[in-house]
Structure formats: C-alpha cells, structure tokens
Protein: GNAT family N-acetyltransferase
Organism: Streptomyces achmelvichensis
Amino acid sequence: MSGVRIHVVKPEELEEGETEAWRELRAKTGMPANPFMEPEFTLAVGRVRPDARVAVLREDGEPAGFFPHERGPLGHGRAIGLGVSDCQGAILRPGLEITARELLRACRLSAWEFDNLEAGQPLFSPGAAEEFASPVIDVGTGYEVYEEGLRARSPKFLKTTLAKERRLGRQAGEVRFVFDERDPAALRRLMEWKSAQYRRTGRRDRFAKDWISTLVRDLHETRTPGCSGVLSVLYAADRPVAAHVGLRSRTVLSCWFPAYDPEFAKYSPGLILHLRMAESAAAEGIGMLDLGRGDAEYKDALRTCELLVQEGSSVRPGPRAALYRISREPGRRAHSFVRSRPRLAGYGRSALNRLARLRGH
C-alpha cells in the first residue's frame, strides 16, 4: 500500500473538495452512473444511520478513492444503506494498488457484507457467494425504439397493457402521468400502499423502520445532477392509482419502491406506470432504467438486458471474522438453497401468501 493513506470519517465530515473528487473518480470508472454510488446517497444515509462511515484514500496527497460503509458491533461492516441500496462498492482510481484486507484493516472492519455489489469491483468480488441478474430497460435510442422491440418480443403483453390503460381512462377518468411529482402527500400515499403490500404478502415492512422512511423522504427532496429523488405518479381523474419513487442521475434511473392502489389492480396500473416512466425517462435523456435484482413477472416482461450484482462478504482473517461467519453464513446458505430450488421457493411464497390472508381476517 505504498503511498496510499487512509482516514475514516463520518459522511458529514467529508470536505467539499472530497465529494467533488468522489464524483470525478466515479465518472472515470466507465460504469453506469448509478445514483446509489454517488456521495449524496451516502450523505443521506449518514443522516439516519449513526454508524455510517467513509474511508478516504489519498495517494501523494490527492484523493484516490472512497469506501462508504457502516460499522457494526465487533467490526462487522456492511454496505452503506444495506437493505435499500441497490448498487454497492468502493469508488477507486483505476490502478490504485490496495487490497481488501488492507482497506478493511484501516476501517477496523473484520468483515464487510454486501448484497448488491456492482460488477467491476475486483477488490471485493472474490468474497461473492452468489451472483444475480438486475434487469434493465434500455431506452438509450428512444422510447419508440424500445416500444417497437417490446412489441416484437411480447406483442400480447404490450397490446393488453395499452388496452388496460385505455379502459382505465374510460371507466375511472382521464389518465394522467407525472414523471417528477413533488407533492409530499403523493409520497405518503405510495408508502402506505407499499406497507400494505408488504403486510398483505407476509413480508417485512421496510417502511416500518424509521430510518428507511426518513431516508426515502429525504432523498425525495434531494436535487443534484448525480443523485435526485424522483416520484412518478399515475393518476385517473386526478386520483393516484400507482406510484414509484426512485433515484436518478443524468443517465440512469434506479427503480426502488413501486406500488399501486389494489382497488385498481384489474387495470395493471403498475405496468402502465412503468411504461410511462420509460417514455418520460427517455425524453429526459435517461438511457437506462435499472429495475433491481429480484424475480418478478413485470421485470421479465419489461426488461431488454441485465446487469450483474453479487452477494457475499469480504472477510479479514481473525477471530472476529470467524464470529461473523458463524453468525451470517448459515442463514445465507439456507436462503441460497431455497433460491436454487424453484419448487421449494414456490412453496415458501405460497406459505407467505397464506399467512398474509390469515392476518387479514
């Protein structure tokens, strides 16, 4: 690690010159401009997560890298905003000579856990246990080209969705779409829908955690070129029927939390919403909508290609690392076992749905 010096700070302690250097280094990586990798996301997490930290790497006195992370008990580290961050890793100058062990030691971490490690992170990828597809909608050549391709790949899907949009307009009132809605009431409605969806399907309600709901509200108000909150809403007769909140850069929209009003489920408002998001994003100069990892029929229908993300942990040898493996690896292996067996995973989803129905009575 000759010539490289590392100091660890809280996100709010970053100097203006350092955040600008972060943006410049990120732009030089050649990777998609994912807003989760921008300093604004880390700064926002730092306001709601007291254990958020950033390792600042300098070489010959100049910023050469940044490693956002959270530090838990016994030096068990995790990706910044783990659980809601869809792109993770370090921002390093190409060719910087440093190892994961050296970086973790400087951060006083025995291990660093990730679940959406960005492709092109050789420092941490050896610790990956699994790799997942993150479906993408490519609208870089315009929405019309995307729609033509969608019509060729899935003619029935597109025809049915557009017919439902017309029927929604006839039966519920004029359909209107707002790509960047600033009304906080619309965001509250979305979060209510999403919480109800989590409970209905027997899943953990993320918005029940204060830090997550506060983070989403904070980022909705963030306005920077590399990371801005975008709330998109589909209306019928001025009544919101579907909404999505995500993060955007100049060229990438990271899809985050979509939801819809179950009363309008027969119209597939979520699918209509995503088509209109793709259309408006293309008009804004955004070339990519990253739908995020996870299996979902709507993602399979809308996708044009995929990125790869990894899940796992980078571990520094020692007794604390052994404790980390004991506490984390059995659960990860169990999840991996279920995911690799579609029939077993289907049983699990059915059980969750039955539990959700019982809770509803």
